[in-house]
Amino acid sequence: MKVYKIEHDNKLRRLNENKIKLEKKVQNIVEKNLELIFNIELIKSEFTIKNRRIDTLAFDPEIKSFVIIEYKRDRSKSIVDQGYAYLRLLLEYKADFVLTFNGIKGENKNLQDIDWSQSKIIFITNRFLEYSKEALGLEMPFELWELSKFDDDTLILAKIEPIFSATLDELTQINSKSEEIKKEIKVYDELFHLDKRPSYIHDLYMSLKEEIKNIDENIDIKPTKLYIAFKINAHNFVTTNFTNKRIDLYLSKLKEEFDDPKDFLENVPDSYNWGKICRFPIDSEDQIPYALHLIKQSYEILLRKL
């Protein structure tokens, strides 16, 4: 990756990449900025359970699930073996994780308050080996992030997108390890929400999705159990819920903050406990231009507040 800094005379100065060791300092930086980077909360650093040490234990309040972060120093170790070992630990000792959460957060959650099915592992390292990247294509609840440090204390975290080229032997080996885990933990994708919907809902979503992606190339699409979220800087600015007749779109603020001359928006009732958000439905492609008018406002409102 080539990274440049614009100087005062509009000339570019290339920033040199500095080798960075995945030492405690890096872990501290990530932990102090978990909300900014991943929009999750720190629960405990160096969490030890049953003689196993977890580098960073975090919690995602949006989907009510635990997140384990591992800073990989040894690239030769399989992320499949390591990841499933952590997931087995999490599922086997659920009560210990909840007790730790309650003790640190001062809350009184029980096992049923946690969505264990959306638990995930985040691996961070300087460079992943190719076979580790390939494993991402196997529907595992793992995220891979590569970290680079440049001059001027510039730090870049790049998410590795899934690729798929595993062999049949690798698939067989991974499937045997993951069978037990898959009973409780699921990787949700867009197809999960669209598979049983009418074809016109699928087409409507795909058209809307392309328009939203055109707002900003840095927009991330994150399917969860309940909805598909469109995120910028790890925060939702619009989420989509599906029925057989329409798509319900949820925006990040109350309707009073939007320019909505057609009066499409309605505030979500406080009784839902979903926060201060609003929503509107669409059921035809003719409505997409006006939907984009509202969605862009939500995107801009969120950026101003970050």
Automatic annotation (TrEMBL):
- What are the protein's GO molecular function terms? nucleic acid binding
Q: Name one Pfam family in it.
A: DUF5655
Ranges for domain DUF5655: 195-300
Q: Which UniProt keywords apply?
A: Coiled coil
What organism is the protein native to? Answer: marine sediment metagenome
The residues forming a coiled coil are 5-32
Q: What is this protein called?
A: DUF5655 domain-containing protein
Q: Which InterPro entries match?
A: DUF5655, tRNA_endonuc-like_dom_sf
